[in-house]
Design goal:
302 residues; alpha+beta; T-fold
């Protein structure tokens, strides 16, 4: 097994390869992979004022031409907004800024007390319109934060590029997102322990597909008055979600699907999130999941 790693998208990006490669071949692939991710960051980052997403947010109310990749993910996000009845809501960018998460997590200023009073009016339908020529119009009063679904899209696209380079057995990981391609046995994807232990809380096995994890235990900070904040916003309150689930990992054919299901289940909480994922599994939308609660319970379904 060979591997390479670098920092991008505010997280560690790791490539594990079970195909035989020479050192120069692996280095070349790593350089191409990093260049691809940097290109996607210039499209999707809400922290980069020059990104295409930031430009769209600044021009709410106007028709804006966007790159095909951003157009595709925006349409996918609007679709999942409708499918989840607003529980998956990428139109919360203003609330992310309001709670202080307006820069990448490693640059977060925890000495400033955030504004907690939200004026958010949850949209009933996606507050964005599409034309066939890659132009979109975001309604005034909303900002897009594609977050995990964009990261899942980027990892999946980069995996396609790696397959085009001839790789057949590899895993590409970016934070809580892992995409596996294997011509042989399924690969074990170990789920990080959200309670701080070194041992994983479980393992999901993947041959072709992705595992996404959504959790409140990593991107978490404390305000000067002692209030604990995290980055997962309840779209109906505009505040960090008050949930008894600390981590959800979902395995699905599409990494973006796993991303959405994991986030929605976390927002729903254990009592409603577990049957939600079970129903998704029965419908063939996902293949397995693992849910960890704040009480230390781990609920697996393989």
């Amino acid at each position: 097994m060979q591997s390479t790693a670098f920092r991008a998208m505010g997280t560690d990006v790791e490539l594990f390869v079970d195909d035989w490669l020479t050192g120069p071949e692996l280095s070349s692939l790593a350089c191409q992979l990093e260049a691809s991710i940097r290109r996607y960051e210039r499209i999707f980052s809400r922290f980069d004022p020059a990104s295409h997403l930031s430009r769209l947010n600044r021009q709410a109310g106007w028709w804006v031409t966007v790159p095909a990749e951003l157009y595709e993910v925006l349409k996918l996000a609007a679709h999942w907004f409708e499918q989840t009845r607003g529980y998956f809501d990428p139109f919360i960018g203003e609330d992310m800024r309001r709670i202080g998460y307006s820069v990448s997590f490693d640059r977060l200023d925890v000495t400033v007390e955030p504004v907690l009073a939200s004026r958010r009016v949850p949209p009933v339908i996606p507050p964005i319109e599409f034309r066939p020529d890659c132009t979109v119009r975001l309604q005034p009063g909303y900002e897009v934060d594609l977050g995990g679904i964009a990261k899942g899209f980027i990892v999946a696209r980069c995996a396609e590029e790696l397959r085009a380079q001839g790789l057949r057995n590899f895993a590409l990981s970016a934070g809580g997102d892992v995409l596996v391609t294997s011509d042989a046995e399924p690969w074990p994807v170990r789920v990080a322990n959200p309670f701080g232990g070194a041992e994983p809380v479980g393992t999901l096995y993947v041959k072709q597909g992705g595992v996404a994890t959504s959790g409140t235990y990593k991107r978490r900070w404390q305000t000067p008055t002692g209030r604990v904040m995290h980055h997962l916003i309840d779209p109906f309150t505009g505040l960090p979600a008050d949930t008894d689930v600390v981590s959800v990992s979902v395995c699905a054919d599409e990494l973006t699907t796993a991303e959405v299901l994991a986030k929605v289940a976390l927002l729903l909480g254990a009592e409603r999130g577990t049957p939600y994922l079970c129903a998704a599994r029965e419908a063939g939308i996902c293949s397995s999941f693992l849910l960890a609660t704040t009480k230390g319970a781990v609920i697996p379904c393989n």
